[in-house]
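Quarterly update, task 2.4: zinc ion-bound model.
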Amino acid sequence: MESKFFVTRKMADNVTAICGYCSEVAYLVEGSERALLIDGLTGVGSLKSFVRDLTELPVQLVLTHAHLDHTGAIFEYGEGFIHPYDIPLMYTAYHSSVENRFAFAQQEPYSGIPRLTPPRISDVIPPCPVKTWPVYDGDVFDLGGTQLEVIHVPGHTVGSIVLLDRDNRLLFSGDACNINTILALDGSATVEEYREALLHLLQFVPEFDGMLGGHGAHPASPEMVAKGIELCDRILSGTDDGVMRESVGRLMRYASGLSYPELFQNKMPNIAYDPERLHRRPTPVITDGPNLYR
Ligand SMILES: [Zn+2]
């Protein structure tokens, strides 16, 4: 199905990928009693209305993390599940503002995804306070006949989660581990914390064959979990490639010097990190403001 704003692709009998303006991807998983919408895209066009056309089931929204290209529809549904560590990040001016989400939608999409109608700023869903239901590692969404288990993978953000669908042998991995895993952002975990998170995720790898991530341009595969741990070891021992590259408008230090096609071919992840934030720290640091509320 296709609209001005979204394009779908069937990933399994009960799993539909929904692609937004810049190849950011949400997933609709349907059980016999309810459906779970995994991520809310950038909030350009009404994802809620689009999903209403896809399923008759009641829909619950869960966010893999709080970045602006994953949270848009929470401002339409008015509620959603999110790991509590990521709630303050979701409300930062950077991740909630109409202007930033509109700017994101105007980037060039990943090739292979059809260009949709040019967005207008009036198409952007404005932010509002929302009801958040906390999700934690080990929580299970029972959709009726289909269950999804939450796995907490702090790294890209401190509250990043992934969801395991054992029936389809799929992992909905958000931005947790792929060929461009970015840890160098406000609200990211340290490399040491990420390494521990990947060790935790590694236990589940025998239970899935595919990883469905949050961006068409940044593919992921189960082999990347173990290789991600090796890459963290190289960063922590100072033996990584440490090349500087631009991503999301900033210059970042990357652990591997391989190109995207080389990484994809070798099922290798890459990690962008901040050399000042390698080791465990006591509390998440999120910088925003000072804000003026009026
Ligand atoms: Zn992200």
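Highlight for this quarter: Residues 238 and 255 are 10 Å apart (CA to CA).
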